[in-house]
Specification:
Structural class: mainly alpha
Order of helices and strands: EEHHH
Helix content: 25-40%
Radius of gyration: 12 Å
Distance between the termini: 38 Å
Number of helices: 3
Oligomer: single chain
Number of strands: 2
Strand order of the largest sheet: 1-2
């Protein structure tokens, strides 16, 4: 089953309508395979709402422990939080 982003997100996340991942298969962003993680990060790199996406992932981190959000993996988000 394919899930698409960000159409599947909560309607209060209006910024998601401008996301570079809009309409893409969410499976592209929920992987541990290095090549696919790099591809997901490439999508995020050109995204105009990348910072908002990352902020949302950090806010909801207890439910977002997997996947690439705002161009960062869960481990990279952990490092970011520890550095703050």
């Amino acid at each position: 089953m394919r899930n698409y982003a960000p159409d599947t997100l909560d309607g209060t996340l209006t910024w998601a309508e401008r996301a570079a991942c809009r309409g893409r298969d969410l499976n592209e962003f929920f992987t541990t395979e290095r090549r696919r993680v790099a591809q997901a990060k490439n999508v995020c790199a050109s995204c105009t709402v990348r910072e908002l996406c990352l902020a949302e992932a950090l806010r909801a981190e207890d439910t977002s422990r997997y996947g690439v959000y705002g161009g960062l993996t869960a481990a990279e988000r952990d490092e970011l939080v520890r550095a703050r």
